[in-house]
Write a structure and sequence with these properties.
With 226 residues, the chain is mainly alpha-helical. The protein is 74% helix and 0% strand.
């Protein structure tokens, strides 16, 4: 997530990190713990709870320092080498699947009769960084209200929403009766496959054709054409 903050800063990363280190650090920490911040906010739990473990903060701060201040940008450039980037991306997607199922399970304990809450919390745990991107940009002094996940949801948010729905159906034995481990493995494989497809084959959004067809049939596309 820290590398994504660096990517978003683009060519101004070095100048910004040196002139505004506090803003740079805060935005990076927000992205690192965005899933917990957002899930806790939705569930009415302490938003600051992700900061209760000082070792997590120290580790995240160390990585932030290496990404932004390592000599010759060595760490950042190393992370962008395709094999290294692919391995890191696979690890991130495996972790994302774990966060989604953990969010669904936690919400199910608090709201066992509300499937929509379980789906929303699972999505927040998996795609919190993308959803809070507007807040992170605001910390850096950038205000882009037209670029948010509600208006232009990324593939990660769509995939997390789908994964959350699958986990909710599986957990409540609705339409899905397969073992949890098998469902979990399928979700991990789905996330990893499309992430590698995006990196190696430049596949941007595999949901787009389905969305276009759905909108044409059910959202008035056909009638507008007539």
């Amino acid at each position: 997530m820290i590398c994504e903050v660096r990517d978003d800063l683009a060519s101004s990363a070095s100048l910004f990190s040196r002139k505004h280190p506090l803003s740079c650090w805060l935005s990076s920490m927000l992205m690192c713990f965005a899933d917990s911040f957002l899930a806790n906010f939705l569930l009415g739990e302490p938003v600051i709870a992700p900061f209760k473990r000082h070792d997590d903060i120290v580790l995240a701060t160390l990585l932030w320092y290496l990404v932004f201040y390592a000599p010759f940008d060595g760490i950042y450039k190393l992370s962008k080498i395709t094999p290294v980037y692919s391995v890191l991306s696979v690890m991130k997607e495996v972790k994302r699947a774990y966060k989604v199922t953990h969010g669904v399970s936690h919400a199910a304990k608090l709201y066992p009769s509300s499937y929509i809450v379980q789906v929303l919390v699972g999505t927040a745990k998996g795609a919190g960084a993308g959803i809070l991107r507007t807040v992170e940009q605001l910390i850096r002094g950038v205000w882009l209200p037209n670029h948010n996940e509600a208006l232009r949801p990324s593939f990660a948010t769509k995939a997390c929403f789908l994964a959350s729905t699958i986990f909710v159906l599986e957990k409540n034995n609705v339409y899905i009766s397969a073992p949890h481990d098998l469902v979990y493995l399928g979700v991990v494989g789905f996330l990893v496959y499309f992430k590698l497809s995006a990196i190696l084959l430049h596949v941007t959004d595999p949901f787009a054709p389905i969305e276009n067809l759905f909108c044409a049939i059910f959202m008035g596309g056909i009638w507008d054409a007539l």
